[in-house]
Amino acid sequence: MTYIFDTLDNLIHQTAFLSLTWGNYLMILVAFVFLYLAIAKDFEPLLLVPIAFGMLLVNIYPDIMARPANGSPGGLLYYFFTLDEWAILPSLIFMGVGAMTDFGPLIANPMSFLLGAAAQFGIFSAYFGAIALGFNGKAAAAISIIGGADGPTSIFLCSKLGQTELLGPIAVAAYSYMSLVPIIQPPIMKALTTDKERKIKMEQLRPVSKLERILFPIVVTVVVCMILPTTAPLVGMLMLGNLFRECGVTRQLTETASNAMMYIVVIFLGTSVGATTSAEAFLNVTTLKIVALGLIAFSFGTAAGCLFGKLMCIVTGGKVNPLIGSAGVSAVPMAARVSQKVGSEYDPTNFLLMHAMGPNVAGVIGTAVVAGVFMAVFGIV
User: Fold this and answer.
1) pTM
2) In 3-state terms, what secondary structure has residue 29?
């Protein structure tokens, strides 16, 4: 009988119920909320499902993120996270995005670069806000990239600046706001534009030749990477993926980069990011500051894009619908779809999607450039 009782006692003490804290239970509840948003509301499910599940796993079994020590091999998701720290997964994500994305609208309307640049205002507002809240320069820079609504770039810069202790809150905030674009952006867009502006119909974009499509990623890589070499892992991979798509002779590479490889990387990146959100690491004042700064940055970026869109509307004599300015944040293609959705609410015949894709792609490039600027400022090579 003693053996039986000892065995049952050991079994009970091996369960998670006795070792979990209230914080763990709270984070498990947050994971459930994320799963609900992803599955029931279809908010970026390809990202939120693995993030939420990683969050769930680490708060039930913290050793899944354990570092190797004293001969122990370490936890499964620790090795996924190492690929984040080495900036490998964010760069591969950019290659997949490039292979999936049509850069034609940006090539057809180069003025879109200005809208993408304007939306980066949110990043700099968050940077100075983080400094004011007591973060050091590198931490403030890592946090501020959340304003670009670009998860891979947030992870990339955070790792490059050596702020891995903040990577979990920063990545979760960035991906959360990417997922909530359809909720956060429309009220700001409507508040800053008039009914007349929202109904503006833009002229059809000119056709873009195959030669232009092939030259664009090559030229952008040379120009941007010559000025800011540290952007090569992001901008270079983004443009390489797009070159696969446009050159017409690498169909197999395009399909692999935009499908199998992309989804494998998303699984690794999502689960490892979610697994950084243990209760001990996530439930603190610093995390609350990061989440708040991220929301402010994203809102300011959306507002700046809309306001610059209004300026372009005035300069062009009413030919630019300011709604496309909100797509200057780099949540591709969600932000462009939101511009289309809001515009169609006021005129169902208005088709803004392709016009909004220009600023949207410009925002991806712009956020990567800003990350490169921060690395140059802090002497990171």
Assistant:
1) 0.90
2) helix
